[in-house]
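1st attempt posting a full record on here, be nice pls
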Amino acid sequence: MKLPPEQLERLALHSAFAVHQIARWVATQPDVSEEIRERLRTHMAAIEGVLVTNGHDWIKTEIEATEQALHA
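the predicted structure (as tokens):
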């Protein structure tokens, strides 16, 4: 599948936000293994870096809160 650049960027942004929503939910679940939490923290940090670098810093605070919640 080949998408125009603007649609590809939009798809990536929506996918990243969906991963964030899942990670936020996982952070509230007490029975999630530390391995899964660590993987999600790593992915969230990478997503945050890409979004902020590309001008989507509006979500930075929210992602950082999710990363912290995954430490709990």
